[in-house]
């Protein structure tokens, strides 16, 4: 079997697993679809967290590596710590720019007000005919 086939069969077995109880009767639980939705939501959160962490680590490693290389070539001792700090700050900047955009309530409410205005304008023009 190939690794993807093994993984698929293990996932199938995990989904079909039923926990035994003392009296042999399984307690009623949420439908599989609901559990699937919850698992997808948890996995989406985990995916986002891993992406954010990877941006932080990548920034520190890349700029720290450049600082180490600069220290090694120039014979200095301050570029590695500076590179690590700059990499961490750059990673935070990228995270905030990419994931820090929260839809504001004002934009949503202004869109609803515009829709209401369009509807009221439409109603008054139809009544004038």
Task: Describe the 3D structure.
By secondary structure, the chain is mainly alpha-helical. It has a domain at 45-100. It is built from 4 helices and no strands. Helix 2 (32-74) runs antiparallel to helix 3 (79-99). The longest helix has 43 residues, at 32-74.
Helix content: over 70%
SS content category:
mainly alpha
Series of secondary-structure elements, N-terminal to C-terminal: HHHH
The 3D shape can be described as elongated
Query: Helix tally?
Result: 4
| Total beta strands | 0
Low-confidence stretches: none
Mean pLDDT across all residues, rounded? 74
Proportion of residues in extended strands? under 5%
Largest sheet: none
Distance between the termini: 74 Å
